[in-house]
Design a protein that fits this description.
The chain has helices at residues 11-18, 200-207, and strands at residues 8-9, 58-65, 86-89, 95-101, 111-118, 123-129, 134-142, 148-157, 162-173, 176-180, 195-199, 217-219, 224-231, 234-244, 249-255, 269-275, 279-285, 291-297, 308-316, 330-335, 338-351, 354-365, 368-374. It is mainly beta and 376 residues long. The protein has 2 domains: 8-255, no CATH class; 262-374, no CATH class. Strands 1, 16, 17, 18, 19, 20, 21, 22 and 23 form a 9-stranded antiparallel beta sheet that branches. A 5-stranded antiparallel beta sheet has the order 2-6-5-4-3, with no helix packed on it. The two termini are 16 Å apart.
Length: 376
């Protein structure tokens, strides 16, 4: 007997759920942005020659010595509501960013960010972006010449169903930060290929809310950066790969999902990533527009050869009467007398527009149910 995970939904709540990111510690990631809309900028002489504008006004208060264990947040002159955000830290510990969303902003709200940096003088300084954007990851990029710059993952919700995500790069100069080039950390110039716009619900449902870490993922071990490919505002789960060679990022070509077994490398886009307590399921659309089913029994991972591969499935859409809660579409594949149904949906209407909604992996042989496990 399998445990059913219950949730109460309306059609609108399903979409609302889809626009909540669930990566790491906070779902705020999907509601966030990195468009620099700071109204508090000032111009100074730039000793580095990287950029002629400081990206944010720095407070005069020196927070603490660099060798102290300090995670102080905003000071008393912070903008109202800039607390309790998501925190990310660079690998070298020299950049800590807390950012969040202002309340009451509607479908395209304003965001804030508080940076704490270790300056060239070894002191910690705070940089306040009162009207900024959401930063959910920061990575230290160490160059062969001994310098370091920082990649920041950014996103901005542009409407109720769409968001933009992109990268920005910064270098610590003195006790400030300067925006620099993404590929090599040098003087800022126009770059293309590090920005995407996509449909929020589509990516959420395709990855069960787990795919946001895959967007502009940087792997410090391999020094590879994965830039997602997008078609008609749908993320494909295929990637442009950029490798950092010690001097700059070099484009090395396209590849499928990182770590996916070679036998599954040829596909057009991800349709569904579906997980139960015992199985990992992946459904892809091929260039031929056929659907392909692949499954692994845990503790296997997607890096290993799948236990089952089936090509030629179908997507089944379900309709609901006015007094019923609509079931989600499911995906059906057959092999050797068995039918594999992914995202099999059971609903129970409680009141108008509200009900219980459960999704399963269902395996049948004829009319007999062999396996039924809920999605996790």
């Amino acid at each position: 007997m399998f445990m059913q995970v219950k949730r109460q939904t309306t059609v609108y709540q399903i979409i609302e759920t889809a626009i909540m990111k669930t990566i790491g510690l906070s779902f705020l990631v999907i509601l966030a942005g990195c468009v620099n809309k700071s109204h508090d900028t000032k111009t100074e002489e730039n000793p580095s020659g990287l950029n002629d504008t400081i990206v944010s006004e720095i407070t005069d208060e020196e927070i603490s010595d660099a060798d102290e264990d300090s995670t102080d947040s905003a000071t008393g002159d912070e903008a109202e509501g800039t607390s309790g955000g998501y925190v990310c830290v660079s690998e070298d510990g020299k950049v800590t960013i807390e950012s969040g969303i202002y309340e009451g902003g509607g479908t395209a709200p304003d965001y804030w960010a508080e940076w704490t940096i270790v300056g060239d003088n070894g002191k910690k300084r705070k940089i306040s972006f009162n009207y900024s954007s959401y930063h959910d990851r920061v990575h230290a990029i160490h160059k062969n010449d001994g310098s370091t710059y920082y990649l920041v993952s950014c996103s901005a919700k542009t409407s109720s169903a769409f968001t933009d995500e992109w990268l920005e790069a910064y270098r610590i100069v003195g006790d400030s930060i300067w925006e620099v080039n993404i590929t090599d950390g040098d003087r800022k110039r126009d770059e293309y290929g590090f920005h995407i716009s996509y449909d929020i619900p589509g990516w959420y449902f395709a990855t069960n809310g787990e795919g946001y870490d895959w967007i502009f993922e940087y792997d410090p071990a391999t020094q590879n950066l994965y830039v997602p490919l997008v078609d008609d505002e749908e993320i494909l789960d295929r990637y442009d790969v950029w490798h950092f060679n010690g001097d700059r990022f070099v484009h090395t070509g396209h590849q499928p999902h990182k770590g996916l077994h070679d036998s599954l490398a040829k596909y057009n886009r991800l349709i569904s990533s579906f997980n139960t307590k015992d199985y990992i399921i992946r459904i892809d659309s091929l260039d031929s527009r056929e659907l392909r089913y692949a499954s692994w029994k845990r503790p296997k991972t997607i890096a290993e050869k799948p236990d089952i591969i089936i090509t030629g499935g179908k997507r089944e859409e379900h309709y609901a009467a006015p007094d019923e809660l609509k079931r989600c579409d499911d995906y059906r594949f057959t092999k050797d007398g068995y039918e594999y149904i992914v995202n099999y949906c059971e609903t129970k209407l409680i009141s108008h527009g509200f009900g219980e909604h459960h999704d399963f992996l269902l395996v049948k042989k004829g009319d007999k149910i062999i396996l039924k496990q809920p999605e996790i």
